[in-house]
Structures are given as structure tokens and as C-alpha cells.
Amino acid sequence: MCAQTITAGNGTLQGFKPCNPSGQICASDSLIKPVAQTERMAPWRTAFSFSLPHRLVDNPLLLTIGRFDGRHPSLVAATTPTQLLIHSTTQTAGGGVSLLNVGESVTCVDAGRLHPTLGRDWLLIGTAQQLRVYDVHENQDIFTVEVSDGASVVRCLPIAGHPAEGGNVLAIVGGNCSVLGFDDTGVEVFWTVTGDTVRTMAAGRVTANDAKPTSKLLIGTDDYAIRVYEREEALHEIAETEAVAQVVAIPDYGFAYLLDNHTYGVYAIASPTSPPTRVWRHKKGGSGGGGRAVVAICVMDVDGDGQNELICGCVS
């Protein structure tokens, strides 16, 4: 399947099959056409658009989306090193914008349903020394814990062998060579080590042909490595050519990755006993990016055909 490219302003969104065995992503001008004319895809249209009254910090680790009332999505982003903006589509006062003063420099944020029965997301805030969990809906702190190795990345993720495997998640904090996991009360229930400062984390049932699938933890670090963990044990380590900026789980298949030098690609995990195998990769300016640098990736079934696509955000 060729690349399907949608251009809006100066930004570009691309989708293509992650299991493309040849890695040949078509990007000629003749193939960039309105999405309504492409096979099996409905026309794209703008779902929403709004402007914010503040400049945002240019750091993807300082932006997240959460359903803090259990239903409606809200955007969280940093406006300064110590202040977070929360934009709600249901709040009318202040243009739907409220500000949260953290009091110290924020290094990362995420949102997720850390509580097993509450039914709404909490906001996770990482700093150089702490993890703070905050209930936006009730405007109150849930807990704050010290993290001696810092919080370079924080994610709500399922971890095999813990209560998260039943559908709940843990607050996973990646720091300087360590990864910690906390439950909804702030108790540390998970700990493991990695080779360098954690840059990105993801989790999911990423192994194909697995009769008893369990969630694997994917970690990308500054030492150019991607590691795959089951519980606290590192199953696989992959050496890349640059620091790992992002890893994204592909359910029942493997994972996608993005490096600091804008190289991106896909690994497959064929069975529970198989190591990850690189299926394809593209470098900055290659055919997959259409001459543009890829700066962000995500995975979803964008055309509703039952197969996941890899979506790439690009800049010129």
C-alpha cells in the first residue's frame, strides 16, 4: 500500500502499512491525491480547531491528552518550565483554559486511568526529583513520591505480572538508568534497570503467534538501544545508530521506532522465542518522509481495515 499523504498548512500526516516487507513507500507527486479518492478510506475532514492564548514549550514530553472527567478529552501542555496549561472542551470560563503552577521545573507529563475503578484519568507530572499525580477533575493531589534518578519520561502503562495485567496500569517513571512503577496509592511495585537515561517508553502485547500474550515493556535510551522487557527481565536489546526518541507498540506484531536523527522503522517479533527483526527503516529525506524529517510517530488503524498503520508527523 502506498503512502497516503494529507497536507494541512506546513504540516504533513502520512499513513502506511507497518508490515510492508519491501519497505518501499511510494511518495511520488502523482500518488499524493485527495484521501477521498484512495482505496478504502473515507474523506478526511477537520475534527476540531482552536487557538491557545499561550505559547507552548516545544517538547513532546510536555504534552498529553487525558479524559479527566471520564468522558471529554482535555489537552495538557507546558507554557513555561513550571506551569502547565489545561484546555478543556467543556469548560467555558477563560476560553476553556486553566493554568496549573507546579512550583518546579516539569520534565514530562502523561495522563491515564491509574485508579482501577474511578473511571477517569489522572495527570502524571515528572520533575527532576519527584513524580506527582494530580486529579484535575477534583483539583487535588493524589500523591507525590521521590524518584532519586529523576523522571525523564513518565507513562501510564500495563506491566505483566502486576495488577495492570488485569486491565489497570502503573505509573512508570524512566530516569537515569532506572525504571520505577507505582500503583494508584503511590506504592512502588516495579523496578528494573536499563543502560542509560530513558528517553521513551511504551507497552503492549507486541508478540505475534503468542498463545498466552503478555504485555511487554519497550524502552528507548540515550545509549542508542531499544530494550524489550517482560516484567523486570530484559528479553532483548537492539543496538541502533542514534539515541532513541520514540518507540510505539504495534499490537500482535512488534513495534515502531524513531531516532534523534529522524530515522524511523519497524521491528517484528514473530513468536515468544524470537528476537525482534527489523522489517524496514527509512532515513531523513528518504522516500517514506517525502524529503521531510519525521519528528513523531503513532500507530492506529486509520482506514478501518483491521490492520494498523504507522502515522508519521513530518517537518520540512
UniProtKB/TrEMBL annotation:
Q: Name one GO biological process term.
A: non-motile cilium assembly
Q: Name the source's superkingdom.
A: Eukaryota
The lineage is: Eukaryota, Sar, Alveolata, Colpodellida, Vitrellaceae
Q: What is the species listed in this Swiss-Prot or TrEMBL entry?
A: Vitrella brassicaformis (strain CCMP3155)
> Gene3D superfamilies, alphabetically?
YVTN repeat-like/Quinoprotein amine dehydrogenase (2.130.10.10)
Domain Ciliary BBSome complex subunit 2 N-terminal as annotated: residue spans: 64-154
> Where does the Ciliary BBSome complex subunit 2 middle region domain start and stop, copy by copy?
211-314
Gene Ontology CC: one annotated term: motile cilium
- Name it: Ciliary BBSome complex subunit 2 N-terminal domain-containing protein
* InterPro entries, per database record: Bardet-Biedl_syndrome_2_prot (IPR016616), BBS2_Mid (IPR029429), BBS2_N (IPR029430), Quinoprotein_ADH-like_sf (IPR011047), WD40/YVTN_repeat-like_dom_sf (IPR015943)
